[in-house]
Amino acid sequence: MTIYTFSSTTNSELFAFSADREGSNLPAQHGPWALQGGLNSQEVPPHKFERAAIETALADGGFQLWRVKKKAS
Question: Which of 6, 32, 67, 71 lies in disulfide reach of 16, CB 3.0 to 4.6 Å?
């Protein structure tokens, strides 16, 4: 399964995983969404996220959201 990664263009800390390359299933209230890339079955997800947990979330809900908080300066 290819997992596609997206970033919210309205919230720089919000990202998503989706099995849909277009991201049409991502929450509209946080969009528009920008495609960042795709992870094939051999690639490791960012931030040490567990691939099995992502795939379960995609099967259950179609997408998974995640945040990266900016470091305090």
Answer: 6
